[in-house]
Structure prediction request, 320 residues.
Amino acid sequence: MPTTLTAFADVTTSDSALRRFLHGLPGVDAVGLEARAASLGTRSIKTTAKAYAIDLAISMIDLTTLEGADTPGKVRALSAKAVNPDPTDRSTPMTAAVCVYPDMVATAKKALNGADVKVASVATAFPAGRAALPVKLADTADAVAAGADEIDMVIDRGAFLAGRYLDTYELIKAVKEACVRPDGTAARLKVIFETGELSTYDNIRRASWIGMLAGADFIKTSTGKVGVNATPANTLLMLEAVRDFREQTGIQIGVKPAGGIRTTKDAIKFLVLVNETAGEDWLSNHWFRFGASSLLNDLLMQRQKLSTGRYSGPDYVTVD
Prediction:
């Protein structure tokens, strides 16, 4: 099995070649995809397995605040919660990352003070992506210079939907290069498709392959800023894509569903999707993340219930 993208070298040499490849991918059976996602969502997880799943889900969260009203104080508080989600139980795992706008990266980095929690930053004119390429690259470079460990970029959905696939590919490649620091290290790149705006499952599959071919470290469903965000079906489709990509190239790519995942029940459904579709290799926060702001609180309440036998309620967790 190859361990590089050599086998796909000719695919990205021109817009017509890339189009032929993408439109040659197998069509998505929408009914079958949704039925499988629904079926996997009925799996029952109990006791010890549920406790493990809750801790795993906590460790996979990109604890997020992406509001115009964000303040340094809010980001510091969120960072403290990421490091110590439940002050009454120090065995609670840290979250994977804190995700903020570029101007808050330095604040988050300082607040985390070397803790094993990444700082993720949205970039490329998030969430709409409506800006010129130099602006998008400067947005990325500023976040990386401020200390971002990870960049969550948005594709130009207008370009993609107009069939300008090579432009979409080149944008991702350019942002990937902007993630590299002067010392040669690089921020990991998550590529957001905004699946709710891509209209069809076939488009989601094509966008997934463009992102992977262009060097994405993660492919991500959504910004969380539109009506339809992460769903079991679109996440299942992306998990199939990263599984197939690794089978053909030897390269592993992460997946991040974001937006609308609010409850422990929801999170466990997604973990079942990961295990049953991509496999155990993706069951770590290096390869799977939840983009969420409210999910953590429900996970903490369910964790407390398993530990104490009592449901503490929302008054016993911090409001983000």
